[in-house]
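Input/output pair, single chain:
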Amino acid sequence: MFKTLKRIIDWCGEFKGKLYIGFAFSFFSHLFAAMPVIVAAYTIGLLLTSARGGAAFDKKWAGISLCVIALLVILRFFFDYMRSRFQEAISYELVAKDRIAIGDALKRVSLGYFQKNSTGDILNSITTGLNTLENMGIRMIDNFVGGYLNFLVIFLSLLVFSPFTALIALAGAAVSFLFLLLVSKHSVRNAGEETEAGRKLSGAVLEYARGLPAVKSFGQGGASMQSMKEAVRENRDIRLKIEYGFTPANCGHLLALKTASVFLAAAACLLCLAGSMEMPVMLMFVFFWHFRFT
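Output:
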């Protein structure tokens, strides 16, 4: 997983600066997405405290909190927009350059190259491979880096309010990370087979399309479909294998996060009942963790 992360970052080359700036904008975007929930929970907590005979609720705070939430939503939009401005175009520009470079290289190769190398392999690399990197590469890197940066800030915040809940969050994140490593290892084990199956499928489709006039002339359309059917079946089998392999580890990853969320909410409630945590802070914890993990 980390090797893939490094390879994609190195691939960005001259755009690394934009990528890192995008990480910063992504961090603030996630932060401002969570803060309105915290403000709302804190306000509800003040109302409940007042209803139970505690400190009187300041009606001015209702208007103030609404303005604060509106400001936070605007800030989230702004930082998300800036992240998109810096990051979204990187993969498209890089892949466009790679496609042009591949085209220039193919113009200079001898005709014997195409006899030794399948055009299906070339087509699969230019279309499926680069298209996946173009659409998902930078976004997955941003989700990975931004997600763990956000967790670091959340963990430090929990340490300030309640070290016990911070330990629960750390344990949940650690178990989740272990399951994500299993997902990564499973992907690495099957990546070669998936690539090979994609190449065979591309080659079979090209072969069928090119030979279609000839096979129709001799009434052999069914026989010519056999290789393509086998390629489709092989491609289907490897993708199902990958999906079935992902499912248990992904379920474990989600279960770890959901379980940590439940334990955090329970710990916050118990601390509030014991008098170690004020109700507005407890509601902040419950609302926030429900927002982050559901």
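The chain has a mean pLDDT of 77. The chain is about 90% helix and 0% strand.
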